Amino acid sequence: MIGPIRQELLSGIREEGQFRTLQEKLRAFPDLQIETDDYKIAATFFNRCRSKGVQGSNTDFLLCAFSHRRSMPIFTTDKDFEGYNRILGITLHAA
Known about the structure:
Layout: H1 3-10, H2 16-26, H3 36-51, H4 58-69, E1 74-75, H5 80-88, E2 92-93
Parallel strand pairs: 1-2
C-alpha cells in the first residue's frame, strides 16, 4: 500500500477507537515506495486526461501511475477512475 492510500483510508474517521482499529488492521499491508518516475508519469497522466476534458486529483493520478508502472490493478469504487481508464488504459479491479 502506498502512503497516500493509507492516509485516505484513515482520513475523516471521527471516532478515535475506529481510527485506531483501522490503523492496526492496515499494518498488515507493507508500505510500498513511490519513486521519482511515478511522479513524472502521474504528471503526464494528469496532462493527458486534462487535454481530453477529464479532471482529477494529483493523488488519483499518482495512484494511476504507481499501478501502471507495476502492472497492478486499482481496487476502487470511485467512478472517476473509469474516466481515467478510458484515456489511460489503467487496470481496474472489479469490486
